[in-house]
């Protein structure tokens, strides 16, 4: 006798089968996916928070101006300015214990507001290898509104002039004097470099003297390589030959030393290039961008020591910096034709037209080396050698009997060769004098 299958009632239990077995796994997968989404949102939220926190506390400036010429085709030119000042970004004296670490004199007035480090970083639009042009601080150039002087002085001269003008108007507030004075200094330095090199400046970053110390400490030291042992009582540099890792105070001594070096200031420029090349190399090799603690240390450095233009999107640049930190930067020093005396000071003689052509060629500038807006064809030209320099009254340019073009490094443009200095590859640790 066949039994008919009884229809399932609504209250009857559901048959056990494959569909029922899948449900717990699906719930687990849904919960796991939800957790991942929450984690990603939290990470993104934290990144946005840190960016907002950094953007809100980092120093900003409107010195570039809304009408400043910009690079075309998506390339970016960034001017890096290192101030030889014993004051913080607000114009207040650094603490005595910090001044002691700097080994740069006990007075906060030493150094003034000279831009002893000037580097134009050209980042191509295609993300290819960037080029960093170091501008020797003693190059004799035209400073707008002042005449010929060392390029490093443009900042301090304009700052002092702006403060004097405000003081004559009855302004006594320290913060206002400092802020407006520094903005005037930044505008003058940017315009001087823009005219001298014949290319636009899209962004700038300014760091004070103590910034080198803080950067090295945030990276837990920066590796460098010296060809010879050095000992200099002025900068405090006292290092053996070979590779070594320098802490903050040692790094500052390393980049400041010029006494006892074969080419003086030009060798100091190469020291700065070597420091930046090694620091960017360590950014990548040490996994800084994936190390939250080290990243926070660098953010603290930025908050303390850095000033940038207010139109710079830092979040985008951090992504770009990951590529630059992989050694994708080459450093070179702009050529010097000779040496002379100007107003009693040692200066570098340069050929502005040659430099504009060189920079235009290396950056692929469309203007073919022509001067930037506002620069005349011969602006700042003191000819290629000291013998052709104008002589006589006091305060004008005079050839220096103690210096000659041969003192410039081989291939740096001395004697009219027109060649750039040997490149320092940012992908390794360069050895320098």
From TrEMBL:
Family: Belongs to the LytR/CpsA/Psr (LCP) family.
Record domain Cell envelope-related transcriptional attenuator: where: 114-284
Keyword RNA-binding appears in the UniProt entry: no
Region annotation Disordered: where it falls in the sequence: 1-24, 364-433
Regions that span the bilayer: 28-51
UniProtKB keywords: Membrane, Transmembrane, Transmembrane helix
Cited PANTHER family: POLYISOPRENYL-TEICHOIC ACID--PEPTIDOGLYCAN TEICHOIC ACID TRANSFERASE TAGU
Protein name as it appears in the record: Transcriptional regulator LytR
One of the Pfam families matching this protein, by short name: LytR_cpsA_psr
Residue ranges, compositional bias (Low complexity): 364-389, 399-411
Species of provenance: Streptomyces rimosus subsp. rimosus
């Amino acid at each position: 006798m066949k039994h008919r299958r009884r229809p399932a009632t609504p209250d009857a239990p559901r048959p056990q089968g494959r569909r029922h077995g899948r449900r717990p796994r699906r719930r687990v997968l849904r919960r796991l996916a939800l957790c991942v989404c929450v984690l990603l949102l939290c990470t993104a939220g934290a990144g946005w928070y840190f960016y907002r926190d950094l953007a809100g506390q980092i120093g900003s400036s409107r010195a570039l101006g809304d009408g400043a010429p910009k690079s075309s085709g998506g390339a970016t030119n960034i001017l890096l300015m290192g101030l030889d000042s014993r004051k913080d970004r607000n114009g207040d004296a650094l603490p005595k214990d910090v001044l002691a670490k700097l080994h740069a004199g006990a007075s906060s007035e030493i150094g003034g507001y000279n831009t002893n480090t000037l580097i134009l970083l050209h980042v191509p639009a295609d993300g290819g290898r960037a080029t960093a042009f170091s501008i020797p601080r003693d190059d004799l150039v035209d400073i707008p509104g002042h005449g010929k002087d060392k390029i490093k002085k443009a900042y301090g001269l304009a700052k002092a002039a702006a403060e004097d003008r405000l003081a004559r108007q009855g302004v006594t507030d320290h913060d206002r004097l400092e802020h407006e004075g520094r903005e005037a200094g930044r505008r003058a330095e940017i315009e001087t470099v823009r005219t001298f090199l014949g290319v636009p400046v899209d962004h700038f970053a300014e760091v004070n003297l103590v910034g080198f110390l803080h950067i090295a400490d945030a990276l837990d030291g920066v590796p460098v390589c010296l060809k010879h042992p050095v000992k200099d009582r002025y900068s405090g540099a006292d290092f053996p030959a070979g590779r070594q890792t320098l802490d903050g105070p040692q790094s500052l001594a390393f980049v400041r030393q010029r006494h006892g070096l074969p080419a003086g200031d030009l060798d100091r420029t190469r020291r700065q290039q070597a420091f930046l090349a090694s620091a960017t190399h360590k950014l990548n090799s040490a996994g800084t961008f994936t190390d939250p603690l080290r990243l926070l240390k660098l953010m603290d450095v930025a908050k303390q020591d850095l000033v940038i233009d207010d139109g710079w999107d830092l979040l985008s640049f951090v992504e770009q910096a990951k590529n630059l930190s992989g050694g994708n930067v080459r450093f070179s020093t702009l050529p010097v034709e000779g040496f002379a005396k100007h107003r009693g000071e040692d200066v570098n003689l340069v050929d502005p037209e040659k430099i504009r052509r060189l920079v235009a060629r290396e950056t692929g500038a469309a203007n073919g080396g022509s001067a930037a807006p506002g620069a005349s064809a011969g602006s700042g030209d003191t000819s290629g050698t000291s013998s052709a320099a104008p002589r006589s009254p006091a305060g004008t340019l005079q050839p220096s009997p103690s210096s000659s073009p041969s003192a410039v490094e081989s291939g740096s443009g001395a004697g009219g060769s027109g060649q750039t200095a040997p490149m320092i590859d940012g992908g390794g640790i360069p050895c320098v004098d």
